[in-house]
Amino acid sequence: MTVVLAPDSFKGSIAAAAAAAALAEGWRSVDPGTAIVPRPMADGGEGTLDAFAAAIPDATRVPVTVTGPHGRPLAASWLLLPPTDDAPRGTAVVELASTSGIELLGSALLPLDAHSLGFGQAIAAALDHGVSRLVLGIGSSASTDGGTGVLTALGARFTDAAGQAIPLGARGLDALVAADLTALRALPGGGALVLSDVTNPLLGAFGAAAVFGPQKGLGQSAVIRADAGLRRLAELLPADPDTPGAGAAGGVGFALRAWGARLVPGAAEVAGLIGLPEALAAASVVVTGEGSFDGQSAAGKAPTHVGALAAAAGVPVALVAGRITADADTSAFAHAVSLTELAGSADAALADPARWLRGAGARLAAGGSSPSV
User: Fold this and answer.
1) Transmembrane stretches, by residue range (predicted)?
2) What is the rounded CA–CA span in Å between residue 255 and residue 169?
3) What is the CATH number of the domain that holds 283?
4) 79 and 197 share a domain?
5) Is the same domain home to 263 and 346?
6) Which of 190, 215, 337, 360 is most enclosed, with most CB atoms within 10 A?
């Protein structure tokens, strides 16, 4: 029997690779003879680097110090994938979550002043290394700066009416009148793929500020202010603000599209890059999951994509989630295990997710019954 473990991260709780390891430990406690193939998933957000590192032999973490979304130095890294025929100098995987992500701020959100400069600095470091291709995960952003921070780190200059550089963050967009892209660094020869799990446009009721701004601390008036700033930016950069995914990561998707990068659905691209379809071809069962499986999980989230791949391969699939909400459709899964139900409460599940993931792995190994946790 071969089990493929392909969970996404349990956001704010446990990374995808660690979740897969805990599931494996629980499964082996019941059935030690099972062959387990870890393929931790990601959709461009938190855990993207870990997913690639766990799935691709000889991937190397390259340390880099960047300016975090709070304006302080931050120790981070990007991932160098081995050379391939189409990327002879290797591929760099750079993750916004670990360089400019909202989790880096804790409870001290900076709705108008957080920025994406650090993500751009990590991209620049990868370019300095000489990589052939970029894979950029842009989930879990802390800011609504339209990607001005990213492009600034790559050589762009955004100025006010006096020709002075605008402040970083959404606040700086208030004064934006010009964008100079003449010193913007070139894409690597193999281009750049941008991984995102959302399809929102940059502007308007479904845009970056209106939909994602409140979770970053923007109140109603600040949402209107940030959307107006993004509109000014849209008039200056050579990209379509209505492109699906332009509103991802506070507008970073739009900025990277203006740079020439290609926006792609994160979960599908990660699955292909880490070899998940090939792993499923030899699988007896696949286990996937995420922190909260809800009514929105069908829209491009990793577990739904893993389930679709498994169905196409004729492989049964099980779901493990921190919580499974009442509006979630779990009909595609042979088993669905909620860590909240296993632990007795959401607080207990969050306090020790590895323990309850081990319990979920044991339960699934026992055929969906409930062995002792």
Assistant:
1) none
2) 14
3) 3.40.50.10350
4) yes
5) no
6) 360
With a cut of 90, say whether residue 329 has pLDDT above it. Answer: no
172, 251 Cβ separation under 8 angstroms: no
Question: Is the separation of the CB atoms in 372 and 365 below 8 Å?
Answer: no
Range of the structural domain that residue 246 is part of: 48-267
pLDDT, one tens digit per residue, over 145-173 is: 999 999 999 999 999 999 999 999 999 99
Quickly state the pLDDT bin for 373 (edges 50, 70, 90). very low
371 occurs within a structural domain: no
**194-248 pLDDT, tens per residue?**
999 889 999 999 999 999 999 999 999 999 999 999 999 999 999 999 999 999 9
- Cβ 288 vs Cβ 270: under 8 Å: no
Are 126 and 255 within one domain? yes
Rounded to an integer, what distance in angstroms lies between the CA atom of residue 345 and that of residue 339?
8
Q: What is the pTM of this model?
A: 0.88
Rounded CA gap, 95 and 109, in Å?
20
The C-alpha atoms of residue 307 and residue 301 are separated, in whole angstroms, by 10
Amino acid at 104: L
Q: Is there a contact between 39 and 319 (Cβ–Cβ < 8 Å)?
A: no
CB of 309 closer than 8 Å to CB of 276: yes
Instruction: pLDDT band for 299, please (50, 70, 90 cuts).
Output: low
Residue 318 sits in the same domain as residue 212: no
